[in-house]
């Protein structure tokens, strides 16, 4: 009988993969998403070269993170599996990872340029510029090492000449990070057509980041305030 947690994880990762084309982050077979259950030490990941619209939870490939061996699955895992494995082994706060070649963000990656800190939305979500790691080979642990070496507090990074990796401690958080990278990259690109965007001081970015990360949205712990009669 399959572990309930892993069954739930398959549902979440299936949803996450199918959300990528819906948000315009991937085309055809490019990109992938995975999720990691730390209690069992296993991840589930998109099969290699499979249409997103056809993915079902049983199609996902289950892999032991320590050994890298496939535990359950009738299809081959994504060719990016080694990068996901490396990141889960080194990012203790991450449970979901997305890889895309979304257009505007990847355009910055093609130029070996970070997405600069020129929008309050960038400060809110990423706390600073979205970094760009240098070009590395796709063999072995090279991509994973580059991401770890150049990671900042931002839940995403560009890979020179390649694309985007984004992550989170939940499937919606990872999807939000990947979607926001593309959204701010598009806005910055548009601004560059007008002129040179003005940078936000790091001290200001810290204030925006702190407010957004700690005071934005609805707290599930605080009772609602009484409304005026």
TrEMBL record:
Its EC number is 5.1.3.4. The keyword Plastid does not apply. Residues 11-189 form the Class II aldolase/adducin N-terminal domain. It catalyses: L-ribulose 5-phosphate = D-xylulose 5-phosphate. It holds the Pfam family Aldolase_II. SMART domains: Aldolase_II. Belongs to the aldolase class II family. AraD/FucA subfamily. PANTHER family: FUCULOSE PHOSPHATE ALDOLASE, L-RIBULOSE-5-PHOSPHATE 4-EPIMERASE SGBE. This is L-ribulose-5-phosphate 4-epimerase. It comes from Tuwongella immobilis.
